[in-house]
Amino acid sequence: MSQHEAAHRLGEQFHAFLTAGDWAGIRTLLTDDVTWTLPGDNTVSGTARGADGVVERAKKIASYGLRFELLHILVSRENMALSLHNTAQRDDVKLDEYLSTVCRLRDGRIASIETYLSDVPGMNAFFV
């Protein structure tokens, strides 16, 4: 399997585990020292550190009932990104955002994640 095929498969696995709530599965895709940085000023913003911290962040985000629609898996020479459309509703507050989750890979696993959002104010209003 080529490097870009392996990166694409890693993206498929990450999305599948996230939508299934398979936290142990996500953990297998991460390096021990992984980080995940999200913009904004809310309960899921900032940088989560370590595999356990990243899994806890994924659990917290999923606990808000998000639908993680995969639009594309993008690969570079050495890394991978997920293009997603996330939606959810909590009472009268709606989340409707497009994002790219850029994953830097090391030794076939995710070593860092940085998420880019289309609507940071909307994210701040939803994740209180």
Automatic annotation (TrEMBL):
Residues 12-112 form the SnoaL-like domain. Gene3D superfamilies: 3.10.450.50. SUPFAM superfamilies: NTF2-like (SSF54427). Pfam families: SnoaL_2. This is Nuclear transport factor 2 family protein.
